[in-house]
Amino acid sequence: MRRHNRSNDSMREIRIAGDYIKHPAGSVLIEFGDTKVICTASFSEGVPPFLKGSGTGWVTGEYGMLPASTHTRNQREARKGKVDGRSQEISRLLGRALRASVDMSKLGENTIIIDCDVIQADGGTRTASITGGFVALQLAVNKMLAQGVLADNPVIQAVAAVSVGIIDGVPMLDLDYDEDSGAEVDLNLVAGADGKIVEIQGAAEKLAFGRDKLNELLDLGFHGLNALFAAQKKVIEL
């Protein structure tokens, strides 16, 4: 049995607290078990140079981990003088995932930036960031609609993400740090509420796996995503 008597097809406890921070247009604290991430959405006029004059908007994301979020203190990226490669890769994933939830033509020439800061890490920080990032984005859009800044809701559908993996030959859902660090296969699934896949990140850490196992992992992942979409909806409807 896994930690907290969790079955192989169960998510960790999911908690999402909306309007967690005062100043951003949208914000949440999302928790996947012991993983905790603050997600904020900032709305601003204007778009990157390659979109100027297009009439369409832009959504992008930034991800980082606070120094004390892990067992040993991480050095701040500002002290290193450059963005950590992992942070950059997850930031790009975050942006791609959330752009899949928005009709840019309805956003106008405006930009929404989603910042995800990990305050406590126990596996699944990128999947929690995407899941919470969408809620922060929707809350920001709701505020802009109420203020008349946006005429139409640009959000197409919810987007969420979850991890799955194979440990000792057994497929498991929503891996914590200990499970992820010893997994034979590690996969992250990003999808929309319509059931269509936005992105899959996966690799065999020890042994190659067959298509049958991939299908098992995807089925397990979508099972977890349904729970995440339900959790998102509760906050957005408040």
TrEMBL record:
Superkingdom of source: Bacteria
Stretches assigned to the Exoribonuclease phosphorolytic domain: 11-140, 159-222
Protein's UniProt keywords contain Nucleotidyltransferase: yes
Keyword tRNA-binding found: yes
GO molecular function: 3'-5'-RNA exonuclease activity; tRNA binding; tRNA nucleotidyltransferase activity
Positions annotated to bind phosphate: 86, 124-126
Catalytic activity, EC: 2.7.7.56
Keyword line: Nucleotidyltransferase, RNA-binding, rRNA processing, Transferase, tRNA processing, tRNA-binding
InterPro entries for this protein: ExoRNase_PH_dom1 (IPR001247), ExoRNase_PH_dom2 (IPR015847), ExoRNase_PH_dom2_sf (IPR036345), PNPase/RNase_PH_dom_sf (IPR027408), Ribosomal_Su5_D2-typ_SF (IPR020568), RNase_PH (IPR050080), RNase_PH_bac-type (IPR002381), RNase_PH_CS (IPR018336)
GO biological-process terms attached to the record: rRNA 3'-end processing; rRNA catabolic process; tRNA processing
Cited Pfam families: RNase_PH (PF01138), RNase_PH_C (PF03725)
Catalyzed reaction equations: tRNA(n+1) + phosphate = tRNA(n) + a ribonucleoside 5'-diphosphate
Top EC class for this record: transferase
HAMAP family on file: RNase_PH (MF_00564)
Subunit structure and binding partners: Homohexameric ring arranged as a trimer of dimers.
Function in brief: Phosphorolytic 3'-5' exoribonuclease that plays an important role in tRNA 3'-end maturation. Removes nucleotide residues following the 3'-CCA terminus of tRNAs; can also add nucleotides to the ends of RNA molecules by using nucleoside diphosphates as substrates, but this may not be physiologically important. Probably plays a role in initiation of 16S rRNA degradation (leading to ribosome degradation) during starvation.
Matches recorded under PANTHER family: EXOSOME COMPLEX COMPONENT (PTHR11953), EXOSOME COMPLEX COMPONENT RRP41 (PTHR11953:SF0)
UniProt family annotation: Belongs to the RNase PH family.
Protein name per UniProt: Ribonuclease PH
Species of the source: Geovibrio thiophilus
Gene this protein is translated from: rph
